[in-house]
Every structure is written in structure tokens, then in C-alpha cells.
Amino acid sequence: MQFKLSTNIPHQVVVALSGGPDSVFAVQFLLKGRRNIELAYFHHGTAHADDALAFVSSFAKQYDLLLSTGFSNTKLHSEEEMRVHRYSFLRSLGKPVITGHNEDDLVETYIHGVVRNGHPRFIPKVNDQILRPFLYISKKEMRNYCLKHNHEFLDDPSNTDLRYTRNRIRHEIIPQMELINPGLRKMIVKQHEGCRSPNSTTDGVD
Whole-structure pTM over 0.70, yes or no? Predict the structure, then answer.
């Protein structure tokens, strides 16, 4: 199975593993590609984070991978606070970090920018040492790959909580927009491909 990548992937990287299907896919993809990888997990202090940490720790032992873990010293109240603390931890590792950001994240961020201030916003393919090579692969494709190959993963219950703006965009706004323009995702991906960043590549896994 061939997957189009948004940027090149170094041989030695850290993967930000949350336990969800997107980050589990990222790890399995890189293991198939014989990359030398380590894992990183940031505990946000939420109830789900305890389950996720247990899963990630077990996963690291199963595949004999080094795991770096970060913890928040303060209670985080918003998605933005969580993001800032998480990226601060990931950058502190001093190595290229791969995230599981995917096409769904790309589309949601684009729409979020339009809704908030009238300007589309793109997730960068590369930002300092943070690399997002899977921006042209849908979350559904990632999930189906994990199911097909019996790779266990966790579903974060907060992803269905409509109190979060991103979830309202994901579950309510985008489906309505796609009824009007079924080619919405392809349009956004095409625009993103034209952004100034390392060239897109293709790679394959079974």
C-alpha cells in the first residue's frame, strides 16, 4: 500500500505517541521502513492521560523502544495550553520529532482559520525539528491500516466532546461543507502541497 508523504523522514527520529490510531500508524509505518525510532509521550494531567501513558509504556516495552515521558507541572485548562506544553517538551528532546498529524487535522486547521478570522491556516510540514509527514493521509486510512494489521490503539473520549471548537468543526461544520463541496479535502490538500516546504514524497508499507 502506497502513502503519499508531505516531507522526507530522517533515519533516526522520535515519534510523539499518544496511543491513538494516527500515532500508532506513524510508529508502525516507520518500523516497516526500518527507521531507528524512539518514543515520546506528554501527560497533560487529564483522566484519559493515565490510560494513554499505560498503553504507551506497554507499547514501548513490546517493541523494545526507548520512551521519554513529560508531565505538566500545572493544571492545563485549554487546548492551546496543552499544545504549548506538549511542544515545549518535544523540542526539549533535541531530536527530529515525528507527529501523527494527518489530512483530517490539515482540513480542520484550515477551516478553523477561516471561521475564526477569515483566513485559512495551514499546518506546517516542518517546523524546526517537528516533522509532519502524514498530512496527506486521512485518519480513516490510518485507522483502517491499524485494524487490518491488528495494531492496537486507544480512542481519546475528548475527541467527541463538542465543547472543544475543533470537535465542532470536525463533527458538525466540515460534514455540512462537504455536502456543498465534495472535493473540499482535495482542494485543501492541493493548496497545502503548493506551500513552501520540503518536497512531498511517496513511500509504501504492506
Answer: yes
Note the pLDDT tens digit of each residue in 138-152. 999 999 999 999 999
Count of residues in the chain: 206
3-state secondary structure 73-98: CCCCCCHHHHHHHHHHHHHHCCCCEE
CA distance 144 to 129: 29
Residue 75, class by beta-carbon neighbours within 10 Å (0-12 exposed, 13-18 middle, 19+ buried)?
exposed
Per residue in 77-112, pLDDT (tens digit) is 677 778 888 999 999 999 999 999 999 999 999 999
> Residue 193, Cβ neighbours under 10 Å: how many?
15
